[in-house]
Write a structure and sequence with these properties.
The structure holds 2 protein chains of 2 kinds. Chain A is mainly β. Chain A is built from 1 helix and 5 strands; from the N terminus they run E-E-H-E-E-E. In chain B, 45% of the residues are buried. Classes of the chains: A mainly beta, B alpha/beta.
Chain lengths: 65, 257
């Protein structure tokens, strides 16, 4: 399955958003997620099925003004 | 100090966390500033370097209120989605709402701003809108549910100070009970003092401190200026006048011609 992860192409067999986070070693990290531009709360990651062509964003705390 | 959505801050200093030469200098600048609020953002995280996780630990150690922003968002949808993500990550209802409308000045898209503010307020957010000094827009933001307004002093990162003194003074006079924060454009402590002297409740700045040769010293200088300006406003400044008026008593002066 081809995904876009944070703007870069990625081949992944992750069935769910939670699977993808685990593959990226971010399952326990302080991050927020969105799929195809829609926020996916942490509590829904396990049930959020990923599909070919999905665009996933994983965001973390960063410096800001 | 004024109430910001039920939170009374110990001072009027809100400081950004971007562009510092190092995390240690950022921490030092915050300590010297005494700032009560730190602005933060969200950016893409990599599973390799996990920079965001280290930054999160640093921010927690600062012991200040966290104000996440929607910096870089150009549409209502983008800003609203970012706000939802920020609320989950930072565990706060506060959001510094930016909907950018123009690239050269980073001027807010005030139409999108009002729409996003309404959506987020209805969803339980406590919105700090980055806006202009336009009174009509301010009124619409308040109608949308905002209880704080953050007009720009000058374009973000410009260091030009308070570009529209008349407009900012009018805004203060027009909304005497609303917490007002000068957000963006300050370059020098004297400009922060001027904002506080006008009766603004706080200033929010980043670049002026982070890009200074000695950020920690500049943070301290801003803290002193903000305190001076705030106390001057409380002291009820004199009205300026065009003609001179002798301060030394004239009565009793010797005639020595």
């Amino acid at each position: 399955m081809k995904l876009q992860l944070n703007g870069a192409p990625l081949n992944s067999d992750a069935a769910t958003l939670q699977d993808l986070l685990e593959q990226q070693d971010l399952a326990n990290a302080k991050v927020a997620t969105a799929v195809n531009g829609t926020f996916v709360p942490a509590g829904l990651r396990k049930s959020h099925v990923l599909n070919d062509g999905d665009s996933v964003e994983i965001l973390a705390p960063m410096q800001g003004g | 100090m004024r109430d910001f959505y039920g939170t009374t801050l110990p001072n009027g200093f809100m400081l950004g966390t971007a562009q510092y030469p190092s995390p240690a200098i950022l921490a030092d600048a915050f300590e010297r500033s005494g700032a009560s609020v730190a602005t933060v953002s969200l950016r893409r995280e990599s599973g390799h370097d996990k920079a965001g996780q280290d930054f999160w630990k640093l921010i927690q150690d600062l012991g200040v209120h966290i104000l996440p922003n929607t910096a870089g968002c150009h549409s209502v949808k983008e800003a609203v989605t970012t706000a939802h993500m920020a609320r989950e990550v930072f565990d706060t209802k506060w959001i510094k709402l930016e909907v950018i409308g123009e690239e050269d000045t980073l001027q807010p898209d005030v139409f999108g701003l009002v729409e996003a503010a309404r959506i987020l307020t209805e969803d339980g957010f406590q919105v700090f809108p980055y806006t202009t000094e336009d009174l009509v827009v301010a009124d619409k933001l308040l109608s949308a549910g905002c209880q704080v307004l953050m007009p720009w002093g000058a374009p973000i990162g410009s260091g030009l100070g308070l570009n529209n003194l008349f407009g900012l003074r009018a805004m203060r006079a027009h909304f005497p009970e609303i917490p007002l924060v000068i957000d963006a454009g300050l370059g020098l402590p004297s400009q922060a003092a001027q904002a506080m002297e006008l009766g603004f409740d706080a200033v929010l700045l980043n670049t002026a401190v982070a890009n200074a040769g000695d950020p920690a010293l500049m943070a301290q200088a801003f803290a002193l200026a903000i305190k001076a300006g705030q106390e001057a406003a409380l002291a009820d400044p004199m009205e300026p006048r065009d003609m001179a008026a002798p301060s030394t008593p004239v009565i009793g002066k010797a005639f020595l011609e």
